Amino acid sequence: MSTQPSQHPGLNLGAPHAEAHSANEEFVFGFWVFMMSDLIIFGLLFATYVTMLGGQAGGPGPSDLFEMKSAFIETMLLLVSSFTFGMASLSLKYREDKKWLIIWLLITLVLGLAFIGHELLDFNKMFDKGGVPSRSGFLSAFFALVPLHGLHVTSACIWLLALLGQIAVYGLDTNVKVGLTRLAILWHFLDIVWIGIFSLVYLGGLA
Amino acid sequence: MNHLSDLLLGRLGWDALPFWEMLKDPTTSSIINGIIATGAAAVVILGALIVAGLLTWYGKWKVLWRDWLTSPDHKRIGIMFIVIALVMLLRAIIEAAIMRAQQAFGLGGGFLSPEHFGQLFTTHGTIMIFFMAMPFLTGVINYVMPLQIGTRDLSFPVMNTISLGLTAAGAALVMVSLVLAPFSTGGWSGYPPFTESAANPGAGVDYWIWAVTLSTLSSTMTGINFAVTIYKKRTQGMNLMRMPLFCWVSLCTAILMIFGMPPLTVATALLALDRYLDFHFFTVDLGGNMMNYINLFWAFGHPEVYILILPAFGIYSEVFANFSGKQLYGYTTLVIATMCIAVLSFTVWLHHFFTMGQSAHVNAIFGIATMLIGVPTGVKIYDWMLTMYRGRVRFSIPMVYALGFLILFSIGGLSGIILATPSVDYQVHNSLFLVAHFHNMLIPGLLFGMLAAYNYWFPKAFGFRLEERWGYRAAFSWIIGFMLAFFPLYALGLLGMPRRTVTFFSPAYLPWTLAAGVGALIILFAVFCLLMQLWQSIRMRHENAVPVGDPWDGRSLEWATPSPPPEYNFPVLPEVYSHDPFYEQKSGGKAYQHPEQYVDIEMPANTAMGFITAVTGFLMAFGLTWYMWWLVIGAGVATLIAVIARGYVRNTTRIITAAEVRRTHERWLNEVARTTPITRDHERTTANKGLAVPPEQGAVQ
């Protein structure tokens, strides 16, 4: 094991260190397992959404409520934030460059917050058009699935802030690095879930 | 003033007290029901006061805090899980007995109100599944599995304390519902639309939703923890196909928890959205569809059945091998069968609603899938029988449970095959036949397994054997009581008696309900025996002490440690070359070795995270139940702060020095040297100090 300098993409724990590496291995693997479990929740909500597409009960449907433009903007915000998080991981791995790491993380955070803000505006517009969750089963399913993703992004932003605080206090110690590795997994995972939402909810709904 | 109390207490009012109805409207029925409910509430309050009083009297608060509530040690957490399970078992069994009494007197009346009866069967089911069975098996796996794979702890010890905290919070919520009533009347499965606010506006269903949600979050985390531990922390040489079978079932159970628990989290969360925010997932109007719930619930519910049963299969595998003095027969086939069961368990959920209007083809496919599970289960039954074949079988208490299981579980399996036939299911679904079937699987399959584990591993955990006379009485009363209480229900189901019936008008049911009532009394006696056994064992703990740690001539690594094992389990992590590693060590004269050198051991430091999540989780759920929004927000913010603050903690471990490890280990080795080994013939006598004669001199197989 000690022949491999780094076992984790985006992470550099310094000189090969068997103990730290194997402890880290467990943390990252455990987080992947948690992601699988979380994906079941999203999968079931996707399934619920699809089965309830017909349950509009005479209320507004996808074509009355969804706007391609704003969904596209949200997609771009999230995709770019995944890219900037990738840049943050690279500056952690190859340069151990604290300044650029923090800059990339801050850009990511701003993009994440912009995504949430835009999504909230979007929901507000839907509300104005009568698209409230209590209106129909279809809208209930929409408002269980999409805001849950938004809630995940919010938690990820809070986590990012907490990690920035840890960097300020402890610098780039192993805990911070492992934390960033796991947050990166979450961040890219949320991107993938959003691709699902964009394709299935928005493209599928408007098709 | 009134406004303020609304803000503070939400919808919690005087009418939540269990005796309120009786005082306001004193009819015979309300007085009887009120007295029962008040008595139960008094027991909860008295129990809490007595525990707190005893802790103060003996000055044990600090010990409780330091050694238990904040301990990340997997062994202590396992024991605490089991304590929760046993307390909840007591309550749920008493409720079962009251229900059996009601049906014994139920011809044209009985003494319970339908509302009260509804709460009884809902709490009984909810507790037995989520707060008895799950904590019990989680506790046993928590205790035993890390020892068996030769590691020091689980992968995520802090998360383990949080899992325990969430289960404790859920259990506390169910207990509080006795004092501040009502609980749900919607059954343990909580089917809408009956559990929607239109039909069931009170706090009862909300209690159920949050108790169950706390429990499922706990189990999901536990599953992740167990799976990662088994994948990543096995000791050197312990490849997957050398793991004891109990570890294999732990792995499969963990996988089922990871994938099987989220559907229930989704189901209860969506039900909560319906109730709190007027969503329309499962309502009857505005596009809701209750079949969504039923699909989600059983996407959890069926894997759950195997989460419950698989750990017991693992326990029986250890018990049969150990008390037959033989290697487990057909190890590989048992592993494959376990995996098959784990996979198949996700493919059969629809058999829970054969009668709800899907096509005959769909029913047929799920019927066949259901029957298929009988195949790997049958393989297991034969493997266990062949493990006993030509073994030197000792008729110990775990073996009594295991043999009772073998026969009764097969009968239950056969009735399951009957139920899996859709056409038959149309006749007997939602009748007592079904109730008889699943109790027939879960009591011998789960509970007997857990009680076997309790008798088998208790000396490992506490350093003394359990008393045997009351133990045998308990085991036999359980078996006989179970048969008398549940076999009549098969007949009642075939006669057409629906489940969850508070009263009935057909005299043909009466003899059977009376017989079942007598069975319930025998089960109550069995529980009394269990309590007596524990009491007698504690009294006789010095005579029955087995400090060396191997009272049953064991085969796997947990028996290679002292009883109770030190916090770090092994001074040096063992190396494994075969199945039954400890048995091999003993045969080769390599057991109880002095390590070449001692090193410092790094263990997780104590943490209050579990305790904090228990408190905040409970307060949040309680606030949600009674609409005390300030409490919900406050507890939520506190949880968030605790989680963020935990990220800033850097001193997460503490060192146990090599000198201390040496002292502890050498002291134990001296004790081993002083102790006279005994043969298996004497393992039930007071000569047993936990050291077995080496296999070649003792009973050889």
From TrEMBL, chain A:
Domain Heme-copper oxidase subunit III family profile intervals: 1-206
GO (cellular component) term, any one: plasma membrane
Molecular-function GO terms, alphabetical: cytochrome-c oxidase activity
GO terms under biological process: aerobic electron transport chain
Source superkingdom: Bacteria
InterPro entries named among the record's database cross-references: Cyt_c/ubiquinol_Oxase_su3, Cyt_c_oxidase-like_su3, Cyt_c_oxidase_su3-like_sf, Cyt_c_oxidase_su3_a-hlx
Membrane topology note: Multi-pass membrane protein
Family annotation (PROSITE patterns): COX3
Matches recorded under SUPFAM superfamilies: Cytochrome c oxidase subunit III-like
Recorded coiled-coil stretches: none
Cellular compartment(s): Cell membrane
Keyword field: Cell membrane, Membrane, Transmembrane, Transmembrane helix
Main subcellular location: membrane
Family: Belongs to the cytochrome c oxidase subunit 3 family.
Assembly mode: Heterooctamer of two A chains, two B chains, two C chains and two D chains.
Function noted in UniProt: Cytochrome bo(3) ubiquinol terminal oxidase is the component of the aerobic respiratory chain of E.coli that predominates when cells are grown at high aeration. Has proton pump activity across the membrane in addition to electron transfer, pumping 2 protons/electron.
Official protein name in the record: Cytochrome bo(3) ubiquinol oxidase subunit 3
TrEMBL record, chain B:
Keyword GTP-binding: no
Record keywords: Cell membrane, Copper, Electron transport, Heme, Iron, Membrane, Metal-binding, Respiratory chain, Transmembrane, Transmembrane helix, Transport
Domain of life of the native organism: Bacteria
GO molecular function: cytochrome bo3 ubiquinol oxidase activity; cytochrome-c oxidase activity; heme binding; metal ion binding
Compartments reported by the entry: Cell membrane
Signal sequence range: none
Membrane protein topology class: Multi-pass membrane protein
Main location as per UniProt: membrane
PANTHER family per record: CYTOCHROME BO(3) UBIQUINOL OXIDASE SUBUNIT 1, CYTOCHROME C OXIDASE SUBUNIT 1
Family indicated by similarity: Belongs to the heme-copper respiratory oxidase family.
Name by which UniProt lists this protein: Cytochrome ubiquinol oxidase subunit I
Organism: Kushneria phosphatilytica
